[in-house]
Amino acid sequence: QVQLVESGGGLVETGGSLRLSCAVSGGIYSINVMGWYRQAPGSQREWVATIASGGSTSYADSVKGRFTISRDNAKNTVYLQMNNLKPEDRGVYYCYLKNIRSGGPPYEYWGQGAQVTISS
After folding, report:
1. Of 84, 106, 111, 117, which sits 20 to 30 A from 15 (CA to CA)?
2. Residue 51, class by beta-carbon neighbours within 10 Å (0-12 exposed, 13-18 middle, 19+ buried)?
């Protein structure tokens, strides 16, 4: 079965940096999209960034210029480098995988979440 495991969360000061990792086991289709979502306390889950199998990236306006998403296909891992962290960046970060398949809807998977806490 496909599993996504996040790591790298923790406590950082405002203006600091963290790098989240998401390791995938079980298989990634040749055409896919991976990304990160986050959920702040008392808020709904929101999209942060995505990276397609072809390498194209997209970012939410709130993190543009501060966050960088990347992937290492040899390691089946996606990363989120978070710089200049702000208090509003706090929350649980979830890794996402969408395996694109022909002849049917895509398969979608979520990680268990990584806690990111920002101190002032």
Report:
1. 111
2. buried
How would you class 79 by CB atoms within 10 Å of its CB: exposed for 0-12, middle for 13-18, buried for 19 or more? buried
- b/e sequence 18-46, b meaning 16+ C-beta within 10 Å: bebbbbbeeebbeebbbbbbbeeeeeeee
Q: How far apart are CA 55 and CA 31, in angstroms?
A: 11
**At 79, which amino acid appears?**
Y
d(CA 31, CA 18): 28
